[in-house]
């Protein structure tokens, strides 16, 4: 019964052990579904289920009929035009990261958007090239395609040995990697494996994208300085690129460098204005479009290519090229890289989509997002595009300019289509250094994540460590190996957290049923002889030894050592009793000799197995008080503990190996007359122990209690303590029929009963 009294409540109920609660409250029988039941449900077909499958497979069927033309169409058109212009420029810029001609970036900004329009569940993200994925694809392209100097030897049997043939090889590799990444995403979506994104934490993604921004920055230096830098894909490649750049710094093209620096400064300044005054600006200033138009006009008008020998985009063929046939050998060589690309692309897109779904209150489906991204990459890669995800800045433009649905995405694809088929030639005079500067202008948000370190350190040191190590791994080892090492390190931190949990001793706070860490509070209450130990993590094979050591450290003694000492002492006492050297009197026992010598060699030769057995005094006519002074200077360590409570409320599972270790721990305490109680476990925990035959004559299922307070009250009642005087500083007197004290050392006559004084 619960009675509220103001802001307090009074609970009146019995003290419950797990068994007692089960007797008073019978559990109802539940049918647990088997694998066959799940298969039957999966294969069941109905009109409603078919409709649900259709809507989930093609989300456009659910939102397009409810489209509000008068309210949303104009906003989507404005947003689509703005996003499309940004997508064109980012497609051209990010193609440089893939080390392919810039024009192919337009394909990556077009085809995935069309597919996502029909299959995607997010209404606000802008699908297309993303710098991190472009860098990852570019690393594979550099590794698998020849350099200019190696072209002749690599393709000796082919006539394609010029620059265009090398570019064609790079495009084929990039497209093949994109197709395989899309296949992986599609299969994961069909198999409902969208949950894998949970293994990429926010800290890991933040550290990885920041490291990728560093790679992007370094990779664009050769375009800003217009230098010939050899490709590197092995670990420490970033530092090798820097070495190559600075070793040729005297060959810098000043026109390219000045142009890129001016544009970089202008883009940063205007983006800061957009961010600071976004509430006052009707739409963000399209600075990328403005500088592109100006830079293209200036380059064409002053003929920068001829006068200053700058590198320009060059010929952009109008229209689309024929689809490619993926390379089977490339599939075999890049399966690991493609898996990383697929996971990172989905993780970034899903995290951005989640932000907008929470902001505008609509659901998204992770598995359907995988299908949409996979199909988009397969289609885009077939038409010579490269891997797509979502760009944070481009999605921000689509949302901030009023985009309501993926109609805005469709409009942006139309803008890209116009550039591909009609006006792409206007961008031919544009300098590559301008594209490099635009690519770097999109890195501000990624680089600013460095400030996350201090926030993470205050919140969680493990998360901060994950961020730092992910950043280091990705910078030093490269994006592919760095991602794998980062995920492994993150999983290792989970092992560390569970393998070395922060165990604590609890005490009663506020004279209530609340128990907290005894080190955190000054006014605490603890019954004498009772210890409460809390384990905050699962117990399994890797941490059972750590759990035992922390428990021993907390209580201050090793139960096995006490057990062996007592068994050795018991052996001596039995010899005294058998030789008649102990006499029974009404007041206790008297030893008739002043000294007794036993063979040390005989004691040392005791078998360890015998000393580890339970203490059995049934053959003696008296009891032994092990905390008193034993006769003949028999020394046994004294302990002031009679009850131990293990708080397992945070223990989610227990494996078979740790069960054996836990049972050994319980047996060691029980054999030295320390009662052990386990509290806070659920019914499945106890049922698993029963199935594994955990309980026996020593360790019984009656040791389980619902709460810590239930166990404490049970101990107090068992010892006949008065719960109304729950104060460790008071002494109370109690007359107990089950306890007697000795009048001669630590031996007590079983028939002699005298009052005792107890403390708690």
Automatic annotation (TrEMBL):
Topology within the bilayer: Multi-pass membrane protein
Keyword Membrane listed: yes
Domain STAS: 520-715
UniProt-listed GO biological process terms: cellular response to cAMP; intracellular pH elevation; membrane hyperpolarization; sperm capacitation
Signal peptide coordinates: none
Native species: Bison bison bison
Keyword Transmembrane helix: yes
GO cellular component entries: plasma membrane; sperm midpiece
InterPro entries in alphabetical order: S04_transporter_CS, SLC26A/SulP_dom, SLC26A/SulP_fam, STAS_dom, STAS_dom_sf
PROSITE patterns documented for this protein: SLC26A (PS01130), STAS (PS50801)
Location(s) in or outside the cell: Membrane
Recorded superkingdom: Eukaryota
Gene Ontology MF annotations: chloride:bicarbonate antiporter activity; secondary active sulfate transmembrane transporter activity
Spans through the membrane: 77-98, 104-121, 171-191, 197-218, 254-271, 338-358, 407-427, 465-496
Record PANTHER family: SULFATE TRANSPORTER
Keywords assigned: Membrane, Transmembrane, Transmembrane helix, Transport
Predominant subcellular localization, coarse grouping: membrane
Name of the protein this chain belongs to: Chloride anion exchanger
């Amino acid at each position: 019964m619960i009675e509220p009294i103001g802001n307090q409540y009074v609970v009146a109920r019995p003290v419950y052990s797990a068994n007692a609660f089960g007797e008073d409250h019978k559990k109802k029988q539940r049918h647990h579904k088997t694998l066959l039941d799940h298969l039957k449900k999966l294969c069941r077909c109905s009109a409603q289920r078919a409709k649900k499958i259709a809507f989930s497979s093609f989300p456009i069927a659910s939102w397009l009929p409810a489209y509000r033309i008068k309210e949303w169409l104009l906003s989507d058109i404005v947003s689509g035009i703005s996003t499309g212009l940004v997508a064109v420029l980012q497609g051209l810029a990010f193609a440089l990261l893939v080390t392919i001609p810039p024009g192919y970036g337009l394909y990556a900004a077009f085809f995935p958007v069309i597919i996502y329009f029909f299959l995607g569940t997010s209404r606000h993200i802008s699908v297309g090239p993303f710098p991190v994925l472009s860098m990852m694809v570019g690393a594979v392209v550099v590794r698998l395609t020849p350099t200019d100097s190696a072209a002749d030897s690599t393709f000796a049997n082919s006539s394609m040995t010029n620059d265009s043939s090398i570019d064609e090889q790079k495009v084929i590799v990039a497209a093949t990697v994109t197709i395989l990444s899309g296949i992986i995403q599609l299969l994961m979506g069909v198999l409902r494996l969208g949950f894998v994104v949970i293994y990429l934490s926010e800290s890991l993604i933040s550290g990885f994208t920041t490291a990728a921004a560093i790679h992007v920055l370094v990779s664009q230096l050769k375009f800003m300085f217009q230098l010939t830098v050899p490709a590197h894909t092995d670990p420490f490649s970033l530092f090798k690129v820097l070495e190559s750049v600075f070793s040729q710094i005297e060959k810098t093209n000043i026109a390219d460098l000045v142009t890129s620096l001016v544009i970089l400064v202008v883009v940063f300044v205007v983006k800061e204005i957009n961010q600071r005054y976004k509430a006052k600006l009707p739409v963000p200033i399209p600075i990328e479009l403005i500088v592109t138009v100006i830079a293209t006009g200036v380059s064409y008008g002053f003929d920068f290519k001829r006068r200053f020998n700058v590198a320009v985009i060059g010929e952009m063929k109008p229209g689309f090229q024929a689809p490619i046939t993926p390379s089977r050998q490339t599939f075999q060589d890049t399966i690991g890289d493609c898996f990383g690309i697929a996971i990172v692309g989905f993780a970034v897109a899903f995290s951005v989509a989640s932000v907008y779904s929470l902001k505008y209150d609509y659901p998204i489906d992770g598995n359907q997002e995988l299908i949409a991204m996979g199909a988009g990459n397969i289609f885009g890669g077939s038409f010579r595009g490269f891997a797509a995800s979502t760009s944070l800045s481009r999605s921000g433009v689509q949302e901030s300019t009023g985009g309501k649905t993926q109609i805005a995405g469709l409009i942006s694809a139309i803008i890209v289509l116009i550039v591909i088929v009609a006006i792409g030639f206007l961008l031919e005079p544009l300098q590559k250094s301008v594209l490099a500067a635009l690519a770097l202008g999109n890195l501000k948000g990624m680089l600013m994540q460095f400030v996350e370190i201090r926030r993470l350190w205050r919140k969680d040191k493990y998360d901060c460590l994950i961020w730092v190590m992910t950043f280091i791994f990705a910078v030093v080892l490269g994006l592919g190996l760095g991602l794998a090492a980062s995920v492994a390190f993150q999983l290792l931190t989970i092992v560390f957290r569970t393998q070395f949990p922060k165990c604590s001793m609890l005490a009663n706070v506020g004279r209530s049923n609340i128990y907290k860490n005894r080190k955190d509070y000054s006014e605490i209450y603890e019954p004498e002889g009772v210890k409460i130990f809390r384990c905050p993590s699962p117990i399994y094979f890797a941490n059972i030894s750590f759990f035992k050591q922390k428990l021993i450290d907390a209580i201050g003694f090793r139960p096995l050592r006490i057990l062996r000492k007592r068994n050795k002492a018991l052996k001596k006492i039995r010899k005294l009793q058998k030789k008649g050297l102990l006499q029974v009197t009404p007041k206790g026992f008297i030893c008739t000799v002043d000294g007794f010598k036993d063979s040390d060699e005989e004691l040392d030769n005791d078998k360890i197995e015998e000393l580890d057995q339970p203490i059995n005094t049934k053959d003696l006519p008296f009891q032994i008080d092990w905390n008193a002074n034993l006769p003949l200077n028999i020394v046994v360590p004294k302990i002031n503990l009679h009850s131990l409570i293990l708080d397992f409320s945070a223990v989610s599972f227990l494996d078979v190996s740790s069960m054996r270790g836990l049972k050994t721990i319980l047996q060691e305490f029980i054999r030295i007359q320390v009662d052990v109680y386990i509290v806070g476990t659920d019914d499945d925990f106890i049922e698993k122990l029963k199935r594994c035959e955990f309980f026996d004559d020593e360790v019984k299922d009656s040791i389980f209690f619902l709460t810590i307070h239930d166990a404490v009250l049970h101990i107090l009642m068992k010892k006949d303590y008065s719960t109304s005087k729950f104060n460790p500083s008071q002494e109370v007197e109690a007359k107990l029929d089950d306890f007697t004290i000795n009048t001669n050392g630590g031996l007590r006559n079983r028939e002699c009963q005298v009052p005792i004084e107890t403390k708690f």
